[in-house]
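Following up on my earlier message about S-adenosylmethionine. Here are the inputs again, as you asked, copied directly from the submission form:
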Amino acid sequence: MTLCSESASRLSSEEIRRRAAALGPWFHNLDLNGVWTAPEHFLGDYPAVKWRRFAQAIPADLSGRSVLDIGCNGGFYSIEMKRRGAARVLGIDSDEAYLAQARFAADVTGQAIEFRRLSVYDIAALGERFDIVLFMGVLYHLRHPMLALDLIHEHAARDLLIFQSMQRGAAELEPVREDYDFEETKPFDRPGWPKLHFIEQRYAHDQTNWWVPNRACAEAMLRSAGFEISAHPEEEVYICRRVAAPEGAGAVYPMRGPSA
Ligand SMILES: C[S@@+](CC[C@H](N)C(=O)[O-])C[C@H]1O[C@@H](n2cnc3c(N)ncnc32)[C@H](O)[C@@H]1O
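Thanks, got it. Here's what our run produced:
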């Protein structure tokens, strides 16, 4: 059931607990007027623990700005963006169960946020660019991660991209040269070479994990899609600015029309 914010924000703790349980299990541990949605999260108080490590790197006042939260899950970051005064926040996710959680969380916390079921692959259908795009914790869940970054660049990002990905492998970086000779094979084995690790079966018991980059690869992919890294406030988090994409970059993927 969808509630108007006013009535949801007045629910008793018992009623919030009952509805939150019915909407579970939750990945986001949210404080819904004193009721916690995922207190047993394997990463602790997640994603608040991560947010605390990079929150200062995002403008404290988002008045007048529009925000797109891709893979919004239970709505934690959408709610935080709205709390910072964003004029418009749109959260999208491919999973209707998470969107139902996000709608409930936004209602209970009294935040006016729009949530829509939409895959990142279909963001061209929004026909809109956003001042700030959050793309947190989604890249490694995609079979086509570079395509997603290209599409975000081509259709949705206007200025800032807040990006996060799980990383595995070496954290070293080595300078990227303009070119390498065909006979040069050693650079591929060096820890600082960008590597995207393919997961054929499962990782962390999750069959939706497909590609996990090392640090060099996460950074190279962002640059290659036309996102200049302006800050790296947390191990996995990057604040980027949209710039012109390098020659040869770009998505070859048609926008799905309304009838598709
Ligand atoms: C690990 S959670 C990250 C949630 C949140 N962004 C965060 O950082 O805490 C990944 C989310 O991405 C969503 N997702 C997976 N594939 C997607 C796709 N193709 N388009 C949009 N969302 C997707 C999942 O449903 C899930 O809610």
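One observation from looking it over: The two ends are 28 Å apart (CA to CA). Hope that helps, and feel free to reply on this thread.
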